[in-house]
Each structure stands twice: as structure tokens, then as C-alpha cells.
Amino acid sequence: MGVPLLDLKAQYMELKSELDAAIGEVMANAAFIGGPKVKELEEQIASYCGTKHAVACGNGTDALFLILAAMGIGKGDEVITTPFTFFATVEAIAHVGATPVFVDIEPGTYNMDVSKLEAAITERTKAIMPVHIFGQCVDMDPLLALARSHDLLVIEDACQAIGATYKGRKAGSLGHAAAFSFFPSKNLGCAGDGGIVTTDDEVLAKKIRNLAQHGTTKKYFHDTFGTNSRLDSLQAAILLCKLPHLDGWNVQRREAAAIYDELLADVSALELPVTREFGEQVYHLYIVKAQTAGATEQVMRALTAAGIGTALYYPLALHEQEVFTKKPGYVQPSLPVAESCDARTFALPAFPGITREQIEQVVAVVKAAVV
Prior knowledge:
Number of helices: 13
Helix content: 25-40%
CATH topology of the largest domain: Aspartate Aminotransferase, domain 2
CATH class of the largest domain: Alpha Beta
Low-confidence stretches: none
């Protein structure tokens, strides 16, 4: 019997009665856009993350875009970020007209290497956008200190990290604003697209809400050009059902990761994920790194043949993507750690509810494939 990379069907069955009732309530009330469910979700997410405000929106990409736009970041500005993340991070920067500037990553955590930040700052730098990749926070204290010294904004891409902590504080409460995704595969996922912004800045929250609703605070009266990025009530209702279970699910992810760490400790051909001591990570994904792309392909082929879910994260670093390399005048930076991950880092199943027996099955296939 196979093992999926993520078992959303089992999660639905676990909460079926709650979810069906919540969806039925929204359908019966016919309050599909905005309304009390969305407001309640915003309040609960703000409370959960430890921020004063939360603004729901259509997806995590929009959350990043809305933050940048509301901050006035645009043409001629630079935003420093990581090359090792999903494309949406730089897509949002590009869509406001700004330029992403890449710094290399740390081995093992795959997070931004904060020690390389200062060298990337120029007179055009307006913000730093750290990504808490795979559910572990970037080392934020030195990053925030550097941002303060250069008067820069800090935008957390926390789309993979809801529930993660840094020195006792939740991801999403560490910078000027943060973006979360509720894509179905996320640790807290809805049944479609969804996102939210968290911030302590009331003025910024109002600007984001305005931009997300066609640039209006009063129907049919517009003071700016915005967009249409709203979380619908059905998704809010689903998320409200799941939120009380999030911390427990994250514990189960950490337990699964600990079993992998134990069982794969003697496999020298694989680099296991590194966990920093400054907080709890939530293992959105359990990522291992093979010595070559060919070795990765071999292991992944064996996993697939055994009915075990796996996927590359990521096949090509962002600074190497065609969208950048074909731009006139683009000078590709040398980022050796990020480049060393190309087609070599891949995920093993570590979803809430996975059993030790299932993990042992995965490990047996992996060990046989890397020998």
C-alpha cells in the first residue's frame, strides 16, 4: 500500500461533520462574499499570530502583492529576497514594478543567509522579504537590526510557516507585515485559494483592505486603483473549523520529522533538514538533499514506483529562471548554495496522521534506492 505526500482526504474525514455543518451554514445564509465568517477568521488569525490586524484576501500571492503595493514599493525600488522559494515571492515584487535582489541561502535550513544581506543593500533598496521556507523561521533578530539601521521595511513571506515560532513569537508577527497562503496543501489549508495579511500597522491594514476591494472603502466610490482579492465565506468557514486543530497537526509533523531524522541518520548520501534552536518549525515539508540530481531522480523514481508521494522543491533556483536570464542587462548572480539544490532537494511524506509504519516503508525504499 502506498503513502501519499499529503492526505487531504483523511483530514476531511477527520473533520467531516464540522466541515459539512459549517459549509451548510454558509449556504443556508447565502453570505458568500465578506460577512461574519471572514471577519471572525481575520480576528482569530490576528489573535493566533499575535498581531493587531489581519486582512483576508484571495491567495498568498495577492497577500504579498497587496503588502508591497500598500507600502508604496514600485518602479525603481529593490526588494531583497531569497532565490530558493516558490515563484510567487518574486512575482509579487515584479508586479508592483520593483526589482528582486537575491542573496544566497543557508545549507540545511534553505532559509536566507542573513550574513549576506548587508552586501546586497543599495540606495534603491526599500524592503527585505525573508521567506520562512518549509515552515522554519529565518534568523530574524539580525535581519531586523540590519533593516532598522538602513530604514528598510521587512515583509515576511510566511506562506509555508503558519504556527512556526521565533524566540517565542509566531511567524507573521516579526516584520512590518506578513503574508500567509491557505492553499489546500498548506499546514492550514482551505478548499481552494485563500490568503491573509497580518500586521500591527493600522494604517497599512486599511490600505491593504482598500486595495483588495477595488480601491474603495465605500461602495462605488474609489480613491485609488485596486484589485479584486477577497476571501469568500465558504473558505473562511472551512478555515475556522481547521484552525483549532492546527497546533496539534504541527506537533504531528514534528513527530514525523523526528522519526525520519532517526531512521535516516545513517544514510550519508542524503543531507537531512537542519533545525535551528531559536524556535519551533512546522515542517510544511520534510526536505532531503541528494548528492546529485541523478541520485535524486533515482530515489524519486523508486518512491513513485512504490506508490509513495514525493516532489522536487525546487528544480531550479529563481535567479536561474528564464524570465530573469532573458531580460536585457540581467547579470546572473553567483549563489552557490541555492544552485547546489537544483533538482536535488525533494520531499518525503510527513503529513499529520502519518504512522511510524508508513515512515518506515518510505525509509526502506529510500535506503534501497541510494545504496
